[in-house]
Design goal:
Layout (H helix, E strand, L loop, with lengths): L15 E6 L5 E6 L4 E7 L2 E8 L6 E6 L7 E6 L4 E7 L2 E8 L6 E6 L7 E6 L4 E6 L5 E6 L7 E6 L13 E6 L4 E7 L4 E8 L6 E6 L7 E8 L4 E7 L8 E4 L7 E6 L5 E6 L4 E6 L5 E7 L7
Antiparallel strand pairs: 1-2, 2-3, 3-4, 5-6, 6-7, 7-8, 9-10, 10-11, 11-12, 13-14, 14-15, 15-16, 17-18, 18-19, 19-20, 21-22, 22-23, 23-24
Amino acid sequence: MSTNTLQFDTQHEDMIHDAQLDYYGKRLATCSSDGSIRIFEVSNQQQKFVEALKSHTGPVWQVSWAHPKFGSVLASCSYDGTVLIWKETGSGFAVIHKHDKHQASVNAIAWASHELGPVLLCGSSDGKISLVSFTETGTWEVQMIRSAHATGVNAVSWAPVIAANEPTNLKLFATGGCDNNVKIWAYSDETKTHDVVQTLSGHSDWVRDVAFAPNSGLPRTYLASCSQDKNVYIWTRDAQSESLDWKQQALEPFPDVVWRVSWSLSGNVLAVSCGDNRVTLWKENVKGEWECISEANESSQTA
């Protein structure tokens, strides 16, 4: 499996924690322990530095691009306990909102599907999650959900907004925490908030990442989780099932801590980033078993 790789020096002065392409794959945002975010234009195996954003006062853990229907908007979260929402103007990127309601490091952020509007989900070491929404009146609204994971939230992910055979949009997301659990949350019209509908237990150490697969037309929903316990689980739920139970399937054990999981746009290939500096790609075969189909090491060699 051959791939074209673009390598370049970002000029960050410390470890890079995240790198995200925008919706069109033309802009790359990177963030680092040096407290900065750097924006690049990428095309035709070339890159061009655009701007450095330096409003955080601590390491920046994640960045997330909003859907382009809301403009060129980027969110960032930091050890300094804040989430910043940036928008590109004629003179570059500027902060249009600062979310500072958390009392500890904000470790994870994710924009909802554009059908749900400009809604940003945040998870923090203070054990809380929050939803930051831009309302029709032109103001920012924050909803705090306390005790999401008592010892801290490490990861958040939105489910596909329209799942197979579902008549309405789903307002569903998952969180992973230091309590070793993955929690599934659903919006309640009665309480006007998100409530836990399922707690997925199985990991024996901190859950480092969770990721819903994009809707690929299959009659089931896929959720991947990875952990400090060196395991990756694939959780599935059939759309036609009346049961809320999720089936658990483990990938082959990994040699080190597993930090990140990420799905392909088609939703059928899972990338797993491990502490041994290797990224592996996994795909489900016709028997329902997950197989490793490719592996890349730190020198970008694929197997």
